[in-house]
Amino acid sequence: MFTGVYTALVTPFDENRNVDKESLKKIVQFQLNKGISGLVPMGTTGESPTVSHDENMEVVEIVVKEVNGKVPVIAGTGSNSTDEAIRMTKIAKAIGADASLQVSPYYNKPTQEGLYRHFMTIADTVDLPIMVYNIKGRTGVNIETDTLMKLAKHENIVAVKEASGDLNQMMDVIRQKPSDFAVLSGDDNMALPLTLMGGNGVVSVVSNIIPHWMEELIQAGRKGDVEKAKTIHYELLPLFKSMFLETNPIPVKWAMSEMGLVKDMFRLPLCSPAEETKVKIREVLKNQGLI
């Protein structure tokens, strides 16, 4: 169902740290004009932990309306509370989102059985395609391949955003998955390796600033043009690395502010990057011709 590049959108804030609706519409149009495959509002990159549930759904609604059916919108509606995830996913469906991004429950560290029941309960309750989000580094729990394959049997669980960082696990998932189940990288620097192994693309941070280049990279990989894909990958590698000099989404949002796309505004406990980080990011942006 999902192939190509799906931008994990940042959430712009104004000087008062309210959601900047006009800037949000602006970056959505920027993405559409650059040929992005789809958009993922209110994931980790969208600073979902620091917005209210009402703001979360407001952002999703703005993106859905601005996209107006041109590309799929995968709404971040995950939670460490199954009931809350269901509530927000129902709203996302009513708003018109095409799918839901469901992060593995964080902090409470459920067992594999608990993970299975969590995702299955959401899928049974809300008739909306689900992309499971596996990111042990943020949640403290890995979704094991056996668990994911059991989940993939559900007609509403159609994809995984794989950010385990474990190539062996990614290969196992791709080898065992049903033919209609999509596997997308959750890490930009792993996007090409995963795609060449048979994956479907990437949910990307860096595509907030270079959607067209990321699309070119993934398209080359999916077409088997390995030399072209490798060339693009290594050209972009300094940019990939710079986007994780500090905790995501700090670097990418600051880079976007340098490009005039959003303001350099965060909600605590996130804050602007250190001056030495700014210097490094600015140098990479200049080298890439982005500023």
In words, what does this structure look like?
It is a single chain. The model has no long low-confidence stretch (mean pLDDT 97). α3 (82-95) links the parallel β3 (74-76) and β4. Helix content is 46%, strand content 12%. The chain starts with a strand and ends with a helix. It has one domain (4-223): Alpha-Beta Barrel (TIM Barrel). It has helices at 21-33, 53-67, 82-95, 112-125, 136-139, 145-151, 167-176, 191-196, 211-223, 226-242, 250-258, 275-287, and strands spanning 4-8, 38-40, 74-76, 99-103, 130-134, 157-162, 182-185, 201-204.
SS-derived structural category:
alpha/beta
Spans of at least 5 consecutive residues whose pLDDT stays below 50 are none
Shape, per Cα inertia axes: globular
The number of helical segments is 12
The total domain count is: 1
Give the CATH superfamily.
Aldolase class I
How many angstroms does the end-to-end distance come to? 35 Å
Q: Radius of gyration, rounded? A: 18 Å
Task: Sketch the major β-sheet.
Answer: 8 strands, parallel
In round numbers, the mean pLDDT is 97
Q: State which percent range the strand residues make up.
A: 5-15%
> Which H/E pattern describes the elements?
EHEHEHEHEHHEHEHEHHHH
For the largest sheet, list the strands in their spatial order.
Answer: 2-1-8-7-6-5-4-3
Classified by CATH, the class is: Alpha Beta
- Named CATH topology: TIM Barrel
Helical residues, percent: 40-55%
Q: Compute the number of strand runs.
A: 8
CATH architectural arrangement: Alpha-Beta Barrel
